[in-house]
Design brief:
Length: 156
């Protein structure tokens, strides 16, 4: 069974001014492709300490997927927090997500999402829009089981 944490990074969602749609969209997409997954969800504000703590709280999961905080505004700090926490960068994941997303919208080049490994947990930053989050989740599910197996000593 795969354990996945989905962390939405949004000031407005955390304050209850905006309903979190991207986190549930990711969960729905992952479960549609990997129905035996155990999924945990959290919503935090665009604050480095909150993002960091939410990631640390879910270490031990096979994957932590964040959504939001990857843009160009001053408060978009998710990639910086993720980069600081990770032991190993996994640039191919972020490059792949951006490349495939560019076929949908040229704005994908503005996403600063980071991917890396902390211990045995893969952490991947998705954009915050529902469409982008769902699209990236459909891509990522294709490699999640294999990467988990590789990290735990299996795979090819």
């Amino acid at each position: 069974m795969l354990n996945v944490a989905v962390i939405t990074v949004s000031d407005r969602a955390k304050r209850g001014e905006y309903q979190d749609l991207s986190g549930p969209a990711i969960c729905e997409t992952v479960l549609a492709h990997l129905p035996d997954c155990q999924i945990y969800q959290a919503v935090v504000a665009d604050e480095k300490k909150q993002i960091r703590q939410a990631i640390l709280n879910h270490l031990g999961c096979d994957y932590i997927i964040t959504t939001g905080g990857t843009g160009l505004s001053k408060r978009d700090v998710t990639p910086e927090v993720t980069r600081e926490l990770c032991d190993l960068e996994l640039p191919g994941i972020s490059e792949w997500l951006r490349r495939e997303s560019m076929a949908e919208t040229p704005y994908a080049v503005l996403s600063r999402g980071f991917s890396g490994l902390k211990g045995k947990t893969v952490i991947v930053n998705f954009p915050g829009s529902v469409k982008a989050a769902r699209f990236c989740a459909r891509l990522l599910v294709r490699i999640m089981m294999h990467s988990r197996d590789m990290i735990h000593g299996g795979g090819h």
